[in-house]
Design goal:
The chain is of the alpha/beta class. The chain has three domains: 163 residues, Rossmann fold; 74 residues, no CATH class; 219 residues, Rossmann fold, CATH 3.40.50.300. The strands form three sheets. It has a six-stranded mixed sheet.
Length: 480
C-alpha cells in the first residue's frame, strides 16, 4: 500500500498528517499481512469485519486459510498490547518495523449514521456506516475505506466517502510495462557497440562481447534482435556492467531443427523454443494471447526431452480449476480422471503433435502405430491437481503450469518450490483472461513471477505476440 496510497489522496494536504484506513474484510482475506502494509498510517478494523472473518474461517480453500492467518495475526497484535485498546495498538514491534502506525478496533456501537436507503442488515453497509462515523468524529483527518469490492467502493463514493482499492499486492500499476523478454536493437546499434568487438565460437554458436551505452540495461537471458540485410537473433549470456556477451540462437524455424515435428512460425516462437530446449534454464514463463502457441511449443519441447533425449523422466501438468461458466459439480474417478475435463487443451495439442504424416505417400505407420504412440505419450504425462501439491518434491520432471494467470503469488510460490534437482518448470498463461475473483492483471501470480525472475541466470521469459491458430481466431481476437 506504500507510496501509492500516500500519493493518491491529493485533496488533503495537511503537514505530514497520517491517514486512517478502514479495512474491508476482503482485504484481509486477500492478503493477511495487509495489517502491516500501511507504513506510518493508522488502520481501523470494524466489528463487522471481524464477524465476517469468523464466518469464513472454515474450510480448506485459499480464502479460508488466509482468513485464519489474518485472525491469528490480529490475535498476536491484540494479545501483545498492554495499554488500553481504545488508544490504538502500536504496530511497529509486531510488523518488525514495517509499519509505524496504530491499529484501532471498533470498541463502541455505532447507530443512526447510515442513510435510510441502505439496508442495515448488510455487512458492507455497516462497514460504510463506520466510515461515516469516523469522518464525523475526525473531521480534519483523511478517513479512507480500503476494499477489493468494486461495488462497495462505488457505494462509498456515492455517499461522499473516500475509497480505494488495495494496491500493495500489485507488481505493476500498468501491465504494459511488464518485461517482454525481448528487445529490438536500434538501427545504429553496431555503430555504437562494435568498438573493441570480440567474437568466438562455442560449440555451434557464435558469441560476441560488446561494449556500449546499452550494456547496463540488458538483462541475463533477454533476447535481442535486429531485422535487415544481416539479421541478428541473440540471447544475452552475460550482462551488468560496461560490457555484455551475446550468443546466437538455434534456428528453430528451420525444418532440420524441428522439435517433435514442430517448427517455430515466428520470431517469438523461435525465442520460446530456445528457452524450452535449453537445459541450463530451469524456469520459463510464456505469456501470450489465445492461439500464440504456448501449449503446443511447451508440449513439443517436453515430449522431445522426455521420450527422445531422456533429459527428464516424465511430464507433469497442472492447472487451476476455475470454471469460465457454471461449475459442473463433483466428478467421479481418480485424481487424473477428475482433472480430465480441464485438460481439453492438452488433448487438442496432443492430436496436433501426433497427426498423421500423409500415410499413403510415406508408407506411414497407420492408425495402429499412431494409437501406440499416443499410449506411450500418455504413459509419460501425469495430470495433477493443485490441491495436493503441498509437501511434494518433483525430481527430474518437466513441470508445466497451465493457465498460471489464475494463481495468486502465494500459490505460485507453493508450486515453484516443489521443484527438486533436475526439474524444469514452465508457466504459461494470458493475463488478459483471469477468472479468479479479486485477482487482476497487476496482482496475478504470473505477473509476479515474470517480474521477480527477470535477470536470473537460470530463468527466461518471452511474450508471444502473433497468433498462429487460424485466420478466423486471429481476426476474432482483434475485432471481438
Amino acid at each position: 500500500m506504500n507510496a501509492k496510497h500516500s500519493a493518491s489522496s491529493k485533496a488533503h494536504k495537511p503537514a505530514k498528517q497520517t491517514k486512517l484506513f478502514v479495512l474491508d474484510t476482503n482485504v484481509l482475506m486477500h492478503d493477511p499481512t495487509s495489517l502491516f502494509r500501511f507504513e506510518e498510517h493508522d488502520i481501523y478494523v470494524p466489528m463487522m469485519t471481524l464477524e465476517e472473518l469468523d464466518a469464513n474461517k472454515k474450510g480448506m480453500t485459499e480464502v479460508a486459510r488466509n482468513t485464519r492467518q489474518a485472525s491469528r495475526l490480529l490475535d498476536d497484535v491484540v494479545s501483545a498490547c498492554e495499554d488500553d485498546i481504545k488508544d490504538g495498538i502500536p504496530l511497529q514491534q509486531a510488523s518488525r518495523e514495517l509499519a509505524s502506525g496504530r491499529l484501532f478496533l471498533q470498541t463502541e456501537a455505532i447507530n443512526g449514521i447510515i442513510p435510510p436507503s441502505l439496508p442495515t442488515a448488510k455487512a458492507d453497509n455497516q462497514i460504510i456506516a463506520v466510515v461515516m462515523h469516523l469522518c464525523e468524529k475526525f473531521p480534519k483527518r483523511p478517513v479512507i475505506l480500503v476494499s477489493k469490492d468494486i461495488n462497495m467502493r462505488i457505494k462509498a463514493r456515492a455517499l461522499g466517502l473516500a475509497a480505494q482499492d488495495y494496491f500493495n499486492d500489485k507488481v505493476l500499476e500498468d501491465t504494459d510495462l511488464l518485461y517482454t523478454g525481448a528487445r529490438e536493437l536500434a538501427g545504429d546499434f553496431w555503430d555504437k557497440h562494435a568498438k573493441g568487438l570480440e567474437s568466438w565460437k562455442q560449440e555451434s554458436r557464435t558469441l560476441y562481447r560488446i561494449k556500449g551505452p546499452l550494456c547496463p540495461e540488458l538483462l541475463l537471458n533477454e533476447f535481442v534482435w535486429q531485422e535487415g540485410a544481416q539479421p541478428l537473433y541473440a540471447l544475452v549470456r552475460e550482462a551488468g556492467g560496461k560490457s555484455a556477451v551475446l550468443e546466437t540462437l538455434t534456428d528453430y524455424t528451420h525444418q532440420k531443427n524441428a522439435v517433435w515435428g514442430v517448427t517455430a512460425r515466428n520470431r517469438e516462437q523461435n525465442f520460446a523454443l530456445n528457452l524450452l530446449m535449453n537445459p541450463d534454464i530451469d524456469f520459463v514463463t510464456l505469456l501470450g494471447q489465445a492461439g500464440t502457441g504456448k501449449t503446443l511449443l511447451t508440449l513439443a519441447a517436453s515430449l522431445t526431452q522426455v521420450l527422445e533425449s531422456k533429459r527428464y523422466s516424465e511430464i507433469i501438468i497442472t492447472r487451476v480449476t476455475v470454471p469460465v461458466g457454471e461449475d459442473i459439480g463433483f466428478l467421479p474417478g481418480t485424481e487424473e480422471e477428475k482433472m480430465t475435463p480441464w485438460m481439453g487443451a492438452l488433448d487438442d495439442n496432443l492430436d496436433v503433435l501426433n497427426r498423421p504424416a500423409d500415410d499413403a505417400a510415406t508408407g506411414g505407420v497407420g492408425d495402429w502405430g499412431r494409437a501406440a504412440t499416443m499410449d506411450l505419450i500418455r504413459s509419460r504425462i501425469k495430470i495433477k491437481s493443485l490441491n495436493f501439491m503441498r509437501g511434494r518434491t518433483f525430481i527430474n520432471k518437466f513441470l508445466i503450469i497451465d493457465e498460471a494467470q489464475n494463481l495468486t503469488p502465494k500459490q505460485m510460490k507453493t508450486l515453484i518450490t516443489r521443484a527438486g534437482p533436475g526439474t524444469k518448470v514452465v508457466c504459461m498463461g494470458n493475463i488478459a483472461q483471469i477468472d479468479t475473483p479479486y485477482l487482476t492483471e497487476g496482482s496475478s501470480g504470473l505477473t509476479y513471477v515474470v517480474d521477480r525472475f527477470k535477470g536470473w541466470a537460470h530463468s527466461g521469459h518471452i511474450t508471444l505476440q502473433r497468433g498462429e491458430r487460424s485466420r478466423l481466431a486471429d481476426h476474432a481476437g482483434e475485432v471481438l
